[in-house]
Amino acid sequence: MGTPAAGKIPLVSRLRRALLAALLLSPTLAPAAAPPDGSPAGNAELGKNIVVHGTAGGVLPCMVCHGTDLAGNPAIGAPRLAGLKPATTLAALSAIAAGRQGKNYVMRNIAHALTGADRAAIAAYLATLGARG
Amino acid sequence: MIARRAFTRAGIGAVAFLPLAACHKDWTLCAQDLKPGATVADLRLTMTEAETGRIVTAADFRGKVVLLYFGYANCPDVCPITLQETARILGRLGRKADQVRVLFVTVDPQRDTDAVLSHYLALFGRPEFTGLRGTPAQLQALAARCHAAYAVHPSADPARYTVTHTAAAYVFDRVGKPQFICAGLSSKTPDLPGITNDLAHLIG
Q1: Are B76 and A65 inside 8 Å of each other by CB?
Q2: Within 13 Å of residue A81, how many CA atoms lie on the same side as its CB?
Q3: Which residues in A lie closer than 8 A to residue B120 (C-beta atoms)?
Q4: Per residue of chain B (204 residues), what is the pLDDT tens digit?
Q5: B46-203 domain in CATH 3.40.630.30?
Q6: CB spacing of B125 vs A76 below 8 angstroms
């Protein structure tokens, strides 16, 4: 069952893919599956690109609200993203997309618009950044 | 269409004698773009350009179609959405986009220093975007010419620092005459083809 979902994630070594497949509970959970610490499943380069430039589909660059250092912007109510663990990022994005967390409608639309691969990539990238500035 | 063509043909003789100043033909604005009527005066301003620190005036943008917007970098919703949609419209314009300047005038110059403003705008990846920062008097003068409203209520607590502003974008032709007001850029369904078309007509 894990194969089609894992196939969507680029640049994953065969070993990691096998590991990931083992972790998957169901295909629908695939994008939100938390990879083991230190081996993010998403493509961090792609994640960085979305965070800095947004997506071609019109998702805003995350830095617009979370700050160019991703340390958060209290004036907007946007929390720190740098250093978030992948599982935290993925859980927060799911909760925001589902309307269970947050009150900024733009953030909600963004969480909704991001694909599973986008989310995994972003989660991988944020985890590469320092947790404290 | 037919009626218009007949009209055009009949009018050709007269048109030939008109001064060249009226260089763009009439067209029908899309529903989200509104005629400015008498509410917007010709483009006139003196401000600091955030990217360069230079003092600029309307003369610096003469020859370009100008889209002017009042906003601030700590804006949680309408400003970034407007800038993003504007960036997409410029993308649709293709090579014609270099005939457009997008002037983002901060209504919160206290927090939006030149560096903050220029870094913020750079995130949208469009060379046509320019940040403008004025003294309170310069800002007030420009806003008054557009009938744009804004208010800043500073607070030491960033979550309570509030800023309000008119969310429309004001479009001027190459000689600084107001042509239309974009009211739909931050709406749920901005009419990107329609607004692009209106700008394309001004670019010619």
Answers
A1: yes
A2: 27
A3: 64, 68
A4: 333 433 333 333 333 344 444 456 689 999 999 999 899 999 999 999 999 999 999 999 999 999 999 999 999 999 999 999 999 999 999 999 999 999 999 999 999 999 999 999 999 999 999 999 999 999 999 999 999 999 999 999 999 999 999 999 999 999 999 999 999 999 999 999 999 999 999 999
A5: no
A6: no
Q: What is the pTM of this model?
A: 0.83
To the nearest whole angstrom, how far is the Cα of B173 from the nearest Cα of chain A? Answer: 27
A64/B161 touch (CB, cutoff 8 Å), yes or no: no
Strands B33-34 and B100-106: unpaired
Residue A103, Cα to own-chain centre: how many angstroms?
Answer: 19
List of chain B residues whose C-beta atoms are within 8 Å of the C-beta of residue A61: 123-124
Residue A124, CB half-sphere, CA atoms under 13 Å: how many? 25
Residue B160: closest C-alpha in chain A: A75
Q: Are strands B129-133 and B100-106 parallel, antiparallel or unpaired?
A: parallel
Q: How far apart are CA A120 and CA A125, in angstroms?
A: 9
DSSP label of B42: P
Nearest CA in chain A to B186: A106
Distance from the B38 Cα atom to the nearest Cα atom in chain A, whole angstroms: 34
Domains of chain B: which residue ranges? 46-203
This model of the complex carries an ipTM of 0.83
The domains found in chain A, sorted by start residue, are 44-127 (1.10.760.10)
Amino acid at B92: R
